[in-house]
C-alpha cells in the first residue's frame, strides 16, 4: 500500500536553526508524545516497539507509525504496582505511558534484549487487549540457520502487522519503505559524521534530539527534518574549542536524561555514542533487489552495529568499542549504565579491563532517566576531563 | 529434609540417593579439575546434556555451584571477589559467585570445579549469554549458544506441523548439528548415533518419571515439598539427565512417591495449607525460609521452579528414537519454551495448577538476582488475584545475597498472609455452618 504521509511535527518549519533545534529539543523532552497523538487523531494506527532494534520498515509498509518505546521522564505512579523492586526505570515508565493514556497503541512488540525486557510483552498483554508480542531476533547469528530463521520471523511479524493494520503488505510496499529508511540511515550517518568531524557545529543535546525524533514521527517527516537542518548545521559558524573528544557508551536502551547529555555537551565533544543505537543499527543501505524481508534479515546480521544486548561471536563488545573510539578519534570514553541494567553493568567490566589494557582513559558512571541533579556528576566529569586536558 | 524417616526404607530414599548422587557428581568434577580433563559448562534451561553425554563430557552447572555457596553460607565471600573485580552489586548473584569461583581457581565448597573446555547455553535466560561471554574472555574457550525461540504471545504457542513451529524447529536442529560438529572437534571423538539413542532413552525415562512425580503430588497430604525436596530432585534432573544413573534414580523416585501416595504418607508436617511457589527460593537462609511457611502448616505442593529449572522436563516430552536429532530439536524447543512460559506467561497454567492441586494460596518470591523470573511476578499476581481471587503473598529478597535478605520483614509478611488464610477459612466454615 502507499504509505500515509501525515505530518505530526511542524513546529520546526520555517525557523532559524537555533529556533528549529529548540523545537526539536522541546518535543523530545516532552513526556506527552504529542506526535503520536496527532498521528492517531489523523486516523493512523501505532505499533510500539521496545528498545533496541525493530525492523520498522514492516510497520511502515502497512501505513502504521512505528513508535520507539523508550520510557519517559515521568513518575511511574500506576506502573509501580505492576513491577517489583530492583528493576530499571525504563520498564516502569514505558508501561506508565500506556496505563495513563499518554500514548495509545494498536500493537506492542518487545524483544528478548534482556531478562527484564522480555517480560514486557507478557505484562503488557495482561493489561491490554491488542496484540503484545515478542520478536525473537537471533542470539546465535553465527549459525548457518539464523538468516532463514530471521527471515521467517520477519514474515511472521508481517502477518501480525497485516492483521492489526488491516492492510496487506506487498513486497513492493516493503521496498518503498526500505527506500525511505535507507535515506534516513544515510542522513543519520551524515549527522554522526558532523559529530565526529566537526563536533563544535552541533551541541550534543541537539544531535541527540535529532536522532530521538526518528522514533516518534513518520520517517518521511524525519528525512525532511534532517535534510533541511543538516546543511544549516554545516553552515554554522560556531568556533572550535579545545575540548576532549569523548565516546559515550551505555545509551542503547534506557536513555540518559536530556540534562545529562546537555551537561556532557558543555564539558566535552561527544564525538560518538550509542544513544538509540537501534536507529542506526543497520550500517549500510538495505538492498532493494530481491526478497525485501531477506534483505532486512541479512542487514541485521551482516551489516550492523553492536550493543550489550546482542550476542555475536564476531563482535566482542570491548573490541567493537575500541573500534568506535578509534574511528571517532576519541581521547576517552564515558562508560555509563542505566541503574539495574544487567547487560550494561556486566559489559562495563569487560570495557574497563580492555580500556586499561589499551591505555585509554575512561570514566564510569550510572544514570537513571528520572535523575534530576547533575551537579556532583558534572564536577566528577569535569575533573576527569581536566586531568586529561592538562596531563 | 522434610520427609518423614520413620517409615520403611523406601520413604526418604529419593532424598538420600539424590544427595549421594550429588556428592558423586562433584567428586567427578573434582577429579576432572585435578587431572586437567575436559568439561562443558551448561545451564539448567536447555543443558543439551543429551549431546554432551554422548561425548562423555563431564558437565558443570555454574548455577548449581553458585546455589551451593549460598546454601553453605559462604556466598558472600564469592560475591565480594567478583565485586572487587568490578561486577556491580545489582547484577545476578549466581554470575558473581561463579566469577568468584573462577578467580579462586575453581575452589568450591563441594570440590574443585574444572575449567571449561566448552560452554553451551541457551537464550532462555539472557544472563546466560553475558555469563558465557565472561568465560570466553577468561579462558578463550568455545562458546556455543543454542538460540531457542519462545512463545511470542500468551496462548499463542504453535505445534508440530505449523509452519511457524517448523521454522523454529529447523533453526534449533541446524544449531544442534553445528554443536555436534564442535563437540567432535573439541573432544576428537566421532559422534556415535547409537550412543546418542541410548542417552535419549535415559532422558525419556527421566522426563516421563518427572512428570509422574509432579502429578503424584496432587495427593493429600502432599508427598514432597516442592521447595526443599524438589531442589534435590532438580539437581539430579539436571546433572544426570540422559544417564543411566539419572534414569534409575527417577524410576526409584516414582516408586517411592507411588508408595507414599498409596499409603497416605505425607511430609513430616501436618499439612494445613497447600501452596504454590513462584520464583526462586531464598538460599542464604534456605531452611529457615521454608520454616516460615511450614511453621504454619503450609506446604509447597508445586512451583514454577520445578517447571523452569528442569528445563521444561516437566512436560514429559519423549524423544522419537527413529529421528533422534529432529526429535531432540523438537523436544528442546517445546521444553525450553515451556520453561520460559513458566516465567513470562504462567497465569493460565497457574490457574489450572491451583485447581488441580487444590491450592489455598500462591507465594510470589521476587528476587534481586533474577530479572527473568522476577520482572513479571507483581503483575502476574495482580491478575491472578483480580481474575481468580486466590490469596497470594508477594515477598522480595534474593537467592544469593544475604545483604538484601531481611528475615524479620519476611516473617511479618508471611505471618500476616497465614493469618489471612486462617481468617478466610474460618469465614468459609462459618458460612457453611450458617
Key structural traits:
heterodimer; A: 391 residues; alpha/beta; four-stranded parallel sheet; 14 helices; B: 434 residues; globular; disordered N terminus
Briefly, what is this?
With 391 residues, chain A is of the alpha/beta class. Chain A is built from 14 helices and eight strands. Helices cover 48% and strands 10% of the residues of chain A.
What portion of the residues of chain A fall into strands of 2 or more residues? 5-15%
Distance between the termini of chain A: 60 Å
Give the uncertain stretches of chain A in residue-range form: none
Q: What overall form of chain B do the CA principal axes indicate?
A: globular
Low-confidence stretches of chain B: 1-5
What integer value in Å does the Rg of chain B equal? 21 Å
Oligomer: heterodimer
Biggest beta sheet summary of chain A: 4 strands, parallel
- The class by helix and strand makeup of chain B works out as alpha/beta
Give the termini separation of chain B.
41 Å
* Strands of chain A, count: 8
* Biggest sheet strand line-up of chain A: 2-1-3-4
Helix content of chain A: 40-55%
Order of helices and strands of chain A: HHEHEHEHEHHHHEHEHHEHEH
Helicity level of chain B: 55-70%
Beta-strand content bin of chain B: 5-15%
**Succession of helices and strands of chain B:** HEHEHHHEHEHHHHEHEHHHEHHEH
- Helix tally of chain A equals 14
Rg for CA atoms of chain A: 20 Å
Describe this structure in words.
Chain A is of the alpha/beta class and 391 residues long. Chain A is 48% helix and 10% strand. In chain A, the strands form 2 sheets. In chain A, strands 2-1-3-4 form a 4-stranded parallel sheet. Chain A is globular and about 60 Å long. The N and C termini of chain A lie far apart (60 Å). Chain B is an alpha/beta fold. Chain B has helices at 13-35, 49-54, 62-71, 75-85, 93-103, 126-139, 163-187, 193-216, 228-239, 244-263, 286-294, 305-308, 324-344, 347-356, 371-374, 377-388, 407-433; strands at residues 40-41, 59-60, 118-122, 142-146, 273-279, 298-303, 361-367, 392-397. In chain B, 57% of the residues are buried. In chain B, α11 (286-294) links the parallel β5 (273-279) and β6. Chain B is globular, with a radius of gyration of 21 Å. Helix content of chain B is 56%, strand content 9%. The two termini of chain B are 41 Å apart. Chain B contains 17 helices and 8 strands. In chain B, the strands form 2 sheets. Chain B has a 4-stranded parallel sheet, with helices on both faces. The chains are: A alpha/beta (391), B alpha/beta (434).
Amino acid at each position: 500500500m502507499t504509505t500515509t504521509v501525515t505530518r505530526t511535527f511542524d513546529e520546526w518549519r520555517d525557523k532559524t536553526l537555533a529556533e528549529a533545534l529548540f523545537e526539536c529539543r522541546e518535543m523530545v523532552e516532552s513526556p506527552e508524545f504529542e506526535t503520536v497523538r496527532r498521528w492517531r487523531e489523523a486516523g493512523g494506527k501505532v505499533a510500539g516497539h521496545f528498545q533496541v532494534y525493530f525492523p520498522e520498515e514492516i510497520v511502515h509498509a502497512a501505513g502504521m507509525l512505528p513508535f520507539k518505546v523508550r520510557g519517559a521522564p515521568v513518575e511511574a505512579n500506576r506502573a509501580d504496582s505492576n513491577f517489583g523492586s530492583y528493576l530499571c526505570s525504563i520498564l516502569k515508565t514505558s508501561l506508565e505511558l500506556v496505563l495513563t493514556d499518554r500514548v495509545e497503541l494498536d500493537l506492542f512488540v518487545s524483544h528478548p534484549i534482556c531478562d527484564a525486557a522480555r517480560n514486557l510483552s507478557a505484562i503488557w498483554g495482561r493489561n491490554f487487549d491488542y496484540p503484545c508480542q515478542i520478536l525473537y531476533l537471533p542470539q546465535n547469528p553465527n549459525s548457518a540457520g539464523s538468516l532463514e530463521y530471521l527471515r521467517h520471523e520477519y514474515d511472521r511479524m508481517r502477518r501480525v502487522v497485516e492483521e492489526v493494520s488491516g492492510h496487506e503488505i506487498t513486497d513492493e510496499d516493503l521496498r518503498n519503505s526500505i527506500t525511505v529508511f535507507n535515506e534516513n540511515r544515510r542522513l543519520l550517518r551524515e549527522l554522526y559524521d558532523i559529530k565526529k568531524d566537526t563536533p563544535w557545529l552541533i551541541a550534543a543535546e541537539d544531535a541527540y534530539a535529532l536522532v530521538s525524533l526518528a522514533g516518534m514521527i513518520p520517517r518521511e517527516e524525519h528525512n525532511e527534518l534532517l535534510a533541511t537542518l543538516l546543511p544549516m548545521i554545516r553552515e554554522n559558524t560556531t568556533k572550535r574549542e579545545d575540548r576532549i573528544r569523548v565516546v559515550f557508551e551505555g545509551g542503547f536502551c534506557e536513555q540518559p536524561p536530556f540534562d545529562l547529555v546537555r551537561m556532557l555537551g558543555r564539558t566535552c565533544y561527544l564525538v560518538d555514542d550509542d544513544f538509540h543505537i537501534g536507529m542506526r543499527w543497520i550500517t549500510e543501505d538495505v538492498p532493494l533487489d530481491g526478497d525485501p524481508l531477506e534483505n532486512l534479515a541479512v542487514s541485521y546480521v551482516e551489516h550492523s552495529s553492536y550493543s550489550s544486548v546482542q550476542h555475536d561471536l564476531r563482535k566482542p563488545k570491548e573490541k567493537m568499542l575500541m573500534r568506535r573510539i578509534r574511528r571517532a578519534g576519541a581521547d576517552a570514553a564515558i562508560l555509563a549504565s542505566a541503574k539495574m541494567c544487567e547487560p550494561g553493568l556486566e559489559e562495563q567490566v569487560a570495557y574497563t579491563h580492555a580500556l586499561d589494557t589499551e591505555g585509554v582513559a575512561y570514566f564510569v558512571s550510572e544514570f537513571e532517566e528520572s535523575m534530576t541533579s547533575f551537579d556532583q556528576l558534572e564536577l566528577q566529569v569535569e575533573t576527569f576531563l581536566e586531568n586529561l586536558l592538562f596531563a | 529434609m522434610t520427609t518423614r524417616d520413620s517409615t520403611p526404607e523406601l520413604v526418604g530414599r529419593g532424598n538420600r540417593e539424590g544427595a549421594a548422587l550429588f556428592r558423586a557428581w562433584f567428586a567427578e568434577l573434582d577429579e576432572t579439575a585435578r587431572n586437567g580433563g575436559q568439561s562443558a559448562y551448561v545451564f539448567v534451561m536447555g543443558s543439551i546434556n543429551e549431546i554432551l553425554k554422548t561425548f562423555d563430557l563431564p558437565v558443570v552447572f555454574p548455577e548449581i555451584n553458585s546455589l551451593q555457596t549460598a546454601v553453605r553460607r559462604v556466598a558472600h565471600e564469592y560475591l565480594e571477589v567478583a565485586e572487587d573485580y568490578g561486577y556491580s552489586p545489582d547484577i545476578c548473584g549466581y554470575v558473581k559467585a561463579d566469577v568468584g569461583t573462577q578467580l579462586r581457581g575453581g575452589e568450591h565448597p563441594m570440590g574443585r570445579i574444572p575449567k571449561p573446555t566448552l560452554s553451551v547455553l541457551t537464550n532462555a535466560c539472557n544472563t546466560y549469554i553475558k555469563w558465557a561471554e565472561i568465560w570466553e574472555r577468561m579462558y578463550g574457550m568455545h562458546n556455543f549458544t543454542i538460540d531457542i525461540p519462545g512463545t511470542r504471545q500468551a496462548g499463542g504457542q504453535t505445534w508440530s506441523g505449523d509452519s511457524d513451529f517448523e521454522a523454529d524447529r529447523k533453526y534449533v536442529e541446524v544449531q544442534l548439528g553445528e554443536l555436534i560438529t564442535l563437540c567432535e572437534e573439541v573432544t576428537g571423538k566421532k559422534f556415535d548415533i547409537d550412543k546418542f539413542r541410548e542417552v535419549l532413552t535415559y532422558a525419556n525415562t527421566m522426563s516421563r518419571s518427572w512428570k509422574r512425580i509432579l502429578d503424584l503430588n496432587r495427593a493429600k497430604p502432599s508427598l514432597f515439598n516442592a521447595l526443599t525436596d524438589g531442589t534435590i530432585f532438580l539437581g539430579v534432573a539436571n546433572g544426570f539427565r540422559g544417564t543411566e544413573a539419572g534414569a534409575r534414580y527417577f524410576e526409584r523416585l516414582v516408586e517411592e512417591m507411588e508408595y507414599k501416595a498409596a499409603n497416605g504418607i505425607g511430609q513430616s508436617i501436618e499439612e494445613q495449607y497447600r501452596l504454590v511457589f513462584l520464583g526462586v527460593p531464598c538460599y542464604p537462609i534456605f531452611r529457615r525460609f521454608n520454616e516460615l511457611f511450614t511453621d504454619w502448616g503450609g506446604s509447597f505442593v508445586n512451583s514454577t521452579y520445578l517447571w523452569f529449572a528442569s528445563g521444561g522436563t516437566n512436560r514429559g516430552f519423549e524423544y522419537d528414537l527413529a529421528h533422534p536429532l529432529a526429535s531432540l530439536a523438537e523436544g528442546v524447543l517445546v521444553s525450553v519454551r515451556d520453561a520460559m512460559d513458566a516465567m513470562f506467561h504462567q497465569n493460565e497454567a497457574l490457574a489450572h495448577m491451583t485447581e488441580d492441586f487444590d491450592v489455598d494460596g500462591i507465594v510470589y518470591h521476587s528476587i534481586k538476582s533474577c530479572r527473568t523470573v522476577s520482572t513479571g511476578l507483581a503483575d502476574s499476581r495482580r491478575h491472578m488475584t483480580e481474575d481468580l481471587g486466590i490469596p497470594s503473598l508477594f515477598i522480595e529478597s534474593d537467592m544469593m545475597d544475604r545483604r538484601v535478605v531481611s528475615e524479620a520483614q519476611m516473617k511479618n509478611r508471611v505471618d500476616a498472609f497465614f493469618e489471612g488464610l486462617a481468617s478466610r477459612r474460618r469465614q468459609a466454615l462459618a458460612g457453611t455452618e450458617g
